[in-house]
Specification:
Distance between the termini: 31 Å
Strand content: 35-45%
Radius of gyration: 15 Å
Structural class: alpha+beta
Shape: elongated
Order of helices and strands: EHEEEE
Number of helices: 1
Number of domains: 1
CATH architecture: Roll
Helix content: 10-25%
């Protein structure tokens, strides 16, 4: 599946993993990908409001395909639920294989992003 096959999703981030990101098996650490998912959730939240956003939760993440050094990793996002001070974001992670250009579906995740004030308390946000 290509980014063009995901009409509701918008590109959020792209990364090219490097050897420092790998585990002993030569694939990218899951924690590195989780960090990218968190960043992509923030990018989607900022599309909705220019305020202070924090990650409240990430639902279960199941890795379906490994990511290798040299793959181009795409993170695509879409809003799922919009609240007064929160936004639920779905993140899709794809790896374009450097060897042949095939796309592997790595994982998906749902994050709840919360708008907070300067003291870290939930705060209503306005679109824009």
């Amino acid at each position: 599946m290509n980014a063009s096959d995901t009409p509701d999703f918008k590109p959020a981030l792209r990364f090219m993993p490097m050897p420092r990101d790998t585990n002993v098996y030569g694939t990218i650490f899951g924690g590195v990908i989780l960090s990218w998912i968190d960043q992509a959730g923030f990018v989607e939240a900022r599309r909705h409001a220019k305020c202070r956003w924090v990650t409240a939760s990430i639902e279960r993440v199941d890795f379906r395909a490994p990511v290798k050094v040299g793959d181009l990793v795409r993170l695509l996002t879409r809003p799922c639920r919009i609240g007064k001070s929160s936004l639920e974001v779905e993140v899709r992670v794809q790896a374009e294989r450097w060897e042949d250009g095939d796309t592997a579906e790595v994982t998906t995740a749902r994050l709840t992003m919360v708008a907070v004030d300067e003291d870290g308390r939930p705060s209503p946000w306005n679109e824009g």
